[in-house]
Amino acid sequence: MSALRTGATRVARRARPTALRTQRRTHASGHGHDEHHHAAGADEPLGAAFYVAVGAIPAAYLLYSISRPNHDGQNGFVGKLIQQYSNLSEEWETRNALRTAAFEQAAQDKHLLYNAPRNRHIDLKFPEGHFHQGGPFNVPAGHNINLDHVVEHYRNKHLDEEERKAKKAVALAA
Predict the structure, then answer these.
(1) pLDDT tens-place string over residues 30-56
(2) Bias category Basic residues: which stretches (predicted)?
(3) Contact of 147 with 128, CB cutoff 8 Å
(4) Contacting residues for 83 by C-beta, under 8 A, at least 6 apart
(5) Are the beta carbons of 150 and 127 closer than 8 angstroms?
């Protein structure tokens, strides 16, 4: 079967006409464009560049005339705009100065609050409850010890610690 198939394809290839293939052309002259080429139309527009160039002359003269001072010696339109924005910059200067003063005052207040002396009293509502297991209620008579000297000891210890911290902070600041 395969021998018949290959023979049939060879015959079909030979029977196909080879003259139907067209040649590829690389330039436009072979397509007949030369005969139909026309000149540019007579109503071609000038373009945007021409109008920009022509419009620049009166625009420059207008800008020059409004930038010059008046006959009275006062500023023209452009001078008034510049004066207006310079006044605006003075307002901004005063606003910025007020804001800077407010920020500096806030910084001073912050340092004042951070460096204020602390309350050295430690409020122990029930000192016995802190040193004993259990609360001060339902304690039989004679089982509760007077802990005032213990509270005073730890209060003094706390004051000494705070004094040591203050000395260390002063030494670091210096």
Answers:
(1) 555 555 666 666 777 888 999 999 999
(2) 11-30
(3) yes
(4) 75
(5) yes
